[in-house]
Known about the structure:
Strand content: 35-45%
Largest sheet: 7 strands, mixed
Low-confidence stretches: none
Order of helices and strands: HEEEEEEEEEEEEEEEEH
Helix content: under 10%
Shape: globular
Structural class: mainly beta
Oligomer: single chain
Mean pLDDT: 93
Amino acid sequence: MLEHAIRDDLNRRTPRALAVLSPLKVVIENYPEGQAEELDAINNPEDPEAGPRKLPFSRELYIERDDFMEDPPRKFFRLAPGREVRLRYGYFITCTDVIKDDSGEVVELRCTYDPETRGGQAPDGRKVRGTIHWVSADHAVDAEVRLYDHLFTSERPDDDDDFMTTLNPDSLVVNVDAKVEPSLTDAVPGEKFQFERTGYFAVDPDSRPRALVFNRTVTLRDSWKKVAAKL
C-alpha cells in the first residue's frame, strides 16, 4: 500500500528522464559518423504544463543490458539478433551483429536504423512490439545509482523463529556504471525523477556536478519479471 501511494504521488509530480543502469553499447552503423540531432521528449505526460525537453541522439548509444537477449524466449519482445525494436522518442533499430569479448560476454551490438521512423512511427504502418530506453554515448553523464529494495524477503519476518534469516542480501545494490541523459547534469540533492521503465529516484546529498548519485525510492512495475518467473 505504501509503495502504491508513493508511485501514485510521484507519477503526477516528477519529471521523466532516460537513464541506463547497466549499459550495453550499441553502434548504429548506417547513422552518419559525427552527426548528432535532438529529439523531442515529454517531461511528464501527467502534467501538460511540464512541457517538452530535448534528447541528443547520435551514432553510438547505451541501452540496458537486460533489454537484449541473444536467444530470447517466446514472450521476450525487446532487442535480439535480427529483431526490430523502437527506441523511446527515437527510431526503429534492428540488431545485425553481436560483438563478444574473449570470455564470450556480449560487449557491443551493431544495428541499423530506419531514418523514416523518427518519433517512433513507421510511414508504411509496420508495428514493433518492443520499446526500449537509451542514452547517447557521446552525451551521457556518468552516475552512481543506489538501488534500495525490501529489507526482508518475507512479508512477515517476525513469523520466523529467527528474523535475521529473512534479511534480503540485495536490499542495497550500488551501481557505479550508470549513464543518464545530459539534462540531469545540474540535478541537485533532493530533486526527484522517474527514470523511464526503471523507477523513481531522488538525488542523494553525496551528489556533485559530473559525479551524480541517485537513490531509488521505488521501482516501476515490470511485467517481464512476472513472465520470467514462470519460465
